Amino acid sequence: MSSSGSTPSPSAEPELPLFVLLVGEDHPKSCTGRRLLRRGLARPIPARTSRSSRAIVLDPHADRPLSPDDRTEALRSGILAVDCSWNRLGERGRLPTLGDAVSRHAVRRRLPILLAANPQHFGRPTELNTVEALAAATFVLGRRTQAERLLEGFRGGPEFLLLNRDRLSAYAGAPDAVRVRDAERSLFG
How buried is residue 149: exposed, middle or buried, by Cβ count under 10 Å (0-12/13-18/19+)? Predict the structure, then answer.
C-alpha cells in the first residue's frame, strides 16, 4: 500500500524545542530573540512565571560544554536562550536572575567556543547573539537543517555557519563533553 503523503516519513528527525527568555536589555529592533519569537521559531518563557522549565539553559558561565550527549534531554525539555546584553552580562559576571522561569534544577551548559558573525561582535569568540547561540546548539545536537533555518534572514546568519564550519562539525562529531573540550583545545590551542 502506498503512502498518501500526509504521514511524515519515519526518517524525519524531530526538531528541538527552543525557548527564549527576554530580559529586555537590548534595543527591540536589534533583538534576535524577539525576531525568533515573531517568526514562530522559538517559544517565549516570561521572566516571571509560575511554570518552571527544565530546558537546557545556555549559560556562558557553565562549566560543562553542550555536547551531542545532551541530545536526549534537549529533545525532551528543549533549549533555553536568555536574551540579554553582553555588556550587562560582563558587568554582572553571570546571567540575570531568572526567577521562577527556570527551575534551579535546570541543566546548564555553555556553548563550545565559536566565533560570532553578527555585526556587533564579528570575530569575537563566544560573544554570540541569541539566534547564533540557538543555531549553534541545534547544530551541535545534530539538527543542522534547523540551525540553517534559524539563521535565515539575519545579518551575518549564513556567515555564522561558514565561519564556524570546522568547529561546529568537530563539536557535533564529539560524543560527549570531554571530547568537545578536546576539540576546543585542538581548535583554539
Answer: middle
For residues 49 and 24, what is the distance between their CA atoms, to the nearest angstrom? Answer: 16
> What's the pTM value of the predicted model, to 2 decimals?
0.83
Q: Give the three-state DSSP class for 130.
A: helix
Length reported for the chain: 189
From first to last of the 189 residues of the chain, give the pLDDT tens digit: 444 454 444 457 789 999 998 876 665 566 899 999 999 999 998 655 434 467 899 988 899 999 999 999 999 999 999 887 655 444 444 554 554 445 555 789 999 999 999 988 899 999 999 999 999 999 999 999 999 999 998 988 889 999 999 999 999 999 999 999 999 999 987
Taken in order 28, 34, 39, 44, the sign of the CA dihedral is: negative
Say how many C-beta atoms besides its own lie within 10 A of residue 124's C-beta: 13
Residue 162: C-alpha distances to residues 45, 107, 116, 124, 156 (Å): 30, 29, 11, 15, 10
Instruction: Measure the CA–CA gap between 3 and 10, rounded to whole angstroms.
Output: 12
Cell 524525519 belongs to which residue?
12
Residue in the block written with cell 526538531: 15
